[in-house]
Design a protein that fits this description.
Helix 1 runs parallel beside helix 2 and helix 11 packs antiparallel against helix 12. The chain contains 16 helices and twelve strands. By secondary structure, the chain is an alpha/beta fold. The protein has two domains: 6-245, Spore Coat Polysaccharide Biosynthesis Protein SpsA, Chain A (Alpha-Beta Complex), CATH 3.90.550; 249-363, no CATH class. Strand 2, helix 2 and strand 3 form a beta-alpha-beta unit. Helices cover 49% and strands 15% of the residues. It is globular. The longest helix is centred in the last third of the chain and has 31 residues, at 327-357.
Length: 374
């Protein structure tokens, strides 16, 4: 039986310090029927020569050298060039276990799946978080010798292993609507025919959340979705990446509102918007998995999460009561819901204002990473 071809799309921008490790891990995959589409997006460092070396060694690598146009446009070009049955994405800072692609494809083939998702491992180099950087600077000023330590590795996965239909997967997504786990590309496997038949591409409208919007578009057309237990992707925190260096509070708020609209439209089309509406508001205050340990922003987020959890529980109770109450009682319930909604909107506005008071430096450690190019 012929093994299906997997197209692995790898955008590259100024990644000379990491690209060799990344390509080495991809070329070492136990699932050998792959094409590796490497797209050099106008790198100004020595990324291209490194990529050329690997292309010379491995005929499965297709190398494209192009003018810089950003990560969304670069990935769209990769999709146009792809010829595999399945599509996988890798970021140039990161690396994968040798059996990662095989686990993804095996799950897809055995379950006739349209979509496969896996846990991932976050790699936090020593000194990558802001508190550690401050401590390191202080030690240097005091002449204190610091002790080198290995990077910290944290594993994240928010969906039990199993097979899901579209609606059930969408409901689980609302448990962690702002997480890297659901939002990014690199811990997932896609069917290329679904991408082509429905013209699913990356948009430049939403900065820092192109992956999430892409996934929401795709989920609408996926019928069988599989979660596997093996974590084989290593997401390496890079303090110099775009989501750490070019982030600002105003942009974050605008981005959240734009993505919230995409979420609302998706769940409306799926017919479960009213069911998940209380959870949808969590997205406005939720944050992705973070390296940052504490601080005022974390306190704001925790307060917001607690508030929206109460709203969700109240909504569940009201739904149960609505089934047995009389007409007059149902009317009072709707009035309470309207008041609660007004309070929620007011609270959301207050949270946005608190965001604006936070420094961009603190926010940089909390928001999702979606590529390193610009």
């Amino acid at each position: 039986m012929t093994k299906p071809l997997v197209s692995i799309i790898l955008p590259v921008y100024n990644a000379q310090n990491h690209i060799a490790r990344c390509l080495e891990s991809i070329c070492a995959q136990t699932w050998q029927n792959i094409e590796v589409i490497v797209l050099n997006d106008g790198s100004k460092d020595q990324s291209l020569p490194v990529c050329e070396e690997y292309r010379a060694k491995d005929s499965r690598i297709v190398l494209v050298d192009k003018a810089n146009s950003g990560v969304s446009d670069t990935r769209n070009l990769g999709l146009k060039l792809a010829s595999g049955q399945y599509v996988q994405f890798v970021d140039s800072d990161d690396y994968i276990d040798p059996d990662f692609t095989e686990h993804l494809v095996t799950a897809a083939e055995e379950n006739h799946a349209d979509f496969v998702i896996a846990p991932y491992k976050m790699v936090i180099p020593a000194g990558a978080s802001k508190p550690e950087q401050v401590l390191g600077k202080l030690q240097d000023e005091l002449g204190v010798m610091s002790v080198a330590r290995p990077p910290e590795v944290r594993e994240y996965g928010f969906l039990p292993a199993g097979v899901y239909n579209k609606d059930d997967f969408a409901r689980h997504l609302m448990d962690k609507p702002a997480s890297y786990f659901y939002g990014v590309l690199w811990n997932k496997l896609y069917r290329r025919d679904i991408l082509v038949n429905h013209d699913i591409q990356f948009t430049s409208e939403v900065r820092w959340a192109e992956d999430l919007v892409f996934n929401m578009q795709y989920i609408e057309y996926a019928d069988v979705l599989v979660s596997i237990p093996q974590a084989g992707y290593y997401y390496v925190q890079n303090p110099q990446s775009i989501c750490h260096t070019q982030i600002n509070v105003a942009g974050i708020v605008q981005n959240k509102i734009q993505v919230f609209r995409y979420y609302t439209e998706l769940y409306t089309r799926l017919g479960i918007y009213e069911e998940v509406r209380p959870q949808l508001y969590w997205f406005l205050v939720d944050i992705a998995e973070s390296t940052y340990p504490s601080g005022p922003f974390k306190k704001v987020i925790e307060e917001a999460k607690a508030y929206w959890k109460d709203v969700k529980n109240d909504a569940i109770e009201l739904n149960a009561e609505r089934a047995i109450e009389k007409k007059a009682e149902r009317q009072r319930s709707e009035e309470k819901k309207a008041e609660r909604r007004r309070n929620a909107e007011k609270r959301t506005a207050e949270l946005k204002k608190q965001w604006e008071d936070l420094t961009a430096e603190h926010r940089a450690q909390h928001d999702a990473k979606h590529g390193t190019q610009e």
